[in-house]
Every structure is written in C-alpha cells, then in structure tokens.
Amino acid sequence: MYFTKARAAVKYAINKGALIFAATGNSGDKENYPEYPSSLSGVVGVGAINRTGKVAGFSTSGDQVGLVAIGDEIPIRCGNNVCTSHGTSQATAITSASAALIWSKHPEWTNNQVLRVMMQTAAKPTTGDIPSSYLGYGSVRPRKVLLDGEGDPGPANTNPLLAREGATKPEPSGSASKPAGDPSQSPASDEQAAEKPAAEAKTSDDGGNTTLWVALGAGVVVVGAAVAFTVVRRRGGTMARS
C-alpha cells in the first residue's frame, strides 16, 4: 500500500514539474538495501562521496544512484560548537541546493532540463560504465553551470534519468554496471574496506575542490534553501528532497 501511494505521489509531482532528490541510504557497508523513495522511477537517488572523490563506504549503491555529492565530514552545529557528520542525507541536501542554484539562474528551464545539465556537468567516474552503480552519473558541480556556462538543457519534456541519457561505455569491452554485491567490486585490502574500490568508485574533477565542498557544505545548503523558495515563488516550480 505504501509503495503504491508513494509511487503515485512521485509520478504526480514529477508531472507537475517537480525535481525530486532522495538519499540512497547508509547501509552500503552492511546490507546495502535499496531505500525508498530513492528507488522509485523518476527520483534522483543521491549517494555520498568523501573528500578524495571516492564513494563513502556507508553509501548505498545500486541502479537507483543518479548523482553523488560530498557526504562525509560535513560541518554541523553541536550546541555552541561545530561537529562533523556524514550520510547520504547530507549529500542530498547539497545536491538539491545545487539544483536550486542552477534553477534560480535559469528559471525558464524545466525540471528535466535542470537535471540533464547536472548530469552532463557532473564529475564522471574514472573507470567503468556510466551510470555507475556507486556514483551514478558523477558528483555534482554547480559551478560548471553557474560560472562556466556549461551544459545543454536539451528537450524540456524528456526526463534524462528515465531515458538514461549520457550512458556511456568508456572502454569497448565495458560491461553493464555490476550490482553492488559483485565480488569483482570488493575491496582489495583491509585498508580499503571502509571505501568502495577506487577503480569503480572515484570521480574525476578537472578543477573542483572537494575539500572546499566540505568547508562550504552547510553554507550551500542554507543558500540553496533560500533560493529554492525564490524559485518556487517565481515560476511555480517545485523541488522535493527526502
């Protein structure tokens, strides 16, 4: 019953122009169970990476991963002090805030176009097929759109996530993305056990600074929330985050 209602609600929201982001979950180093609503069709599942660009060990992997963002060592307020936190929810906040910033600069774009540009400008996995079961289409880089003017919004009414646009096979012999539990993707040593294997689970960034994301993550979320409110008021658009 819950699944049916959630799926109907997501479909309705997307048809009304919403762009929905949801955390994939934090059981990547345990059961790696898919979580809802990130597993629902049309929802952008968001995983987490660390400051080195590798997928965080806790980040749940699978076909539902659309994008990733920094989700480790995120500064938060702890009483009168500053602590650090981690999780795919934190990564989702940064991803949705990035979308809000992009949408505020291009209010004429639809939800599909904002998402398409985010997928195009993401820092891609260094090896393996795209989308990756660990990193999706890569880590978000809003500056590529906001400052460098990159990205082609493309068709307004085609959901790039459903169409699997941008899917590539860097190597001619590349096979389909392996499921999260595939033995060939297991860590090579105890030191690597806390992270997914680098060959599959590291993004390339030709100018991004993941450490900067860690430092500014909280600020981006706050700014993004304000921008999202402005976007909704200006164009009647909707953005949802879970």
Question: Which oligomeric state applies?
Answer: single chain
CATH class category name:
Alpha Beta
Query: From the 3D coordinates, which CATH architecture would you assign?
Result: 3-Layer(aba) Sandwich
Number of self-contained structural domains: 1
Can you say what the CATH homologous superfamily is?
A: Peptidase S8/S53 domain
What pattern of helices and strands is seen along the backbone?
A: HEEEEEHHHHHHE
Uncertain stretches of 5 or more adjacent residues: 169-195, 206-234
Q: Helix share of residues? A: 25-40%
CA-based shape: globular
Largest sheet features? 4 strands, parallel
- The number of helical segments is 7
Q: Which structural category do the helix and sheet elements fall into?
A: alpha/beta
Strand content: 5-15%
First CA to last CA: what distance? 19 Å
CATH topology (fold) name: Rossmann fold
Walk across the major sheet and give the strand order. Answer: 3-2-1-6
Over the alpha carbons, how many angstroms does the gyration radius reach?
17 Å
Count the strands? 6
